[in-house]
Write a structure and sequence with these properties.
- With about 290 residues, the chain is of the alpha/beta class.
- It folds into two domains: about 180 residues, HUPs (Rossmann fold), CATH 3.40.50.620; about 100 residues, Pantoate--beta-alanine Ligase, Chain: A,domain 2.
- The protein is about 35% helix and about 20% strand.
- The chain is built from ten helices and nine strands.
- It has a six-stranded parallel sheet with strand order 1-4-3-2-5-6, with helices on both faces. A three-stranded antiparallel sheet has the order 7-8-9, with helices on one face.
- The longest helix is centred in the middle third of the chain and has 16 residues.
- Bound molecules: pantoate.
- Pantoate binds next to strand 2 and helix 6.
Amino acid sequence: MKITEYIAVLRENVKQARNQGKTIVLIPTMGFLHYGHLSMVEAARQGDEEHERNYIVMSIFVNPLQFGPNEDYDRYPRDLIRDSRLAQEAGVDLLFVPSVQEMYPEGESLTTVNVTKVSAELCGAHRPGHFQGVATVVNKLFNIVLPDVAYFGQKDYQQFIVIKQMVKDLNIPLKIALMPTIREADGLALSSRNSYLNPEQRKQAPVLFNSLRNAAELIQAGERNPEVILNTIEQRIRNESDGQIEYIEIRKAENLEKVEKINGSVVIALAVHFGSTRLIDNIIVEV
Ligand code: PAF
């Protein structure tokens, strides 16, 4: 595995791989890798153990642009030595670890990408500027790597929808793939931020997925009223944890529009604070 922090070096390596006829796969991350990230490498490597077909680029960059002034940019967990080992073992070909200076040489980006509407609500309503920061850095990564395909995890479902919209609106010539959320045995979605939880919060946090799964079962059993479903989730989280609910919403999975009645493919998404740790999760239900 090659590691570089430089855009020019990355471009040279990717160019060679492309000239060898390989498909360029980009897995953008903020590091502190867990199996959620590594499972995406595994998916790209499936049936390609000899690295003949796919050239896997993983980026690790804690993007300051997507953190609000009172958010966890400074304390976001970082461990490049461990990440490099895990990325190599998983089968990454090129690990891109740019500095802030390499990504934002002028200290800020005068150009930003703002995907309206799908960014406005859910997490976007509570994290002003977050999706603008995400869309801007992902657009930069797309322009730097020029991948054929880029992978994004379902845990950040709104992020996926924002990026999908950006790719469509700006005619970016690549495919984006939604990869399944990977969970601990008790249901908690893997996230680098789980490392912030104290033992009691960690014990309570699986209530998020348990309440979502229970909601999905109620829908499958015939309940179609979003309010009934939302109340059930809210009650369960309140009863079984000290988590402070930021939002629980049911939206059309395709474009995050509001739903009056549950029908077709919907996403139930939530954000809950455990102390100073903000966790998100979601489930997609088809009826
Ligand atoms: O999901 C993440 O880890 C980040 O938002 C991403 C896509 C790497 C952009 O910084």
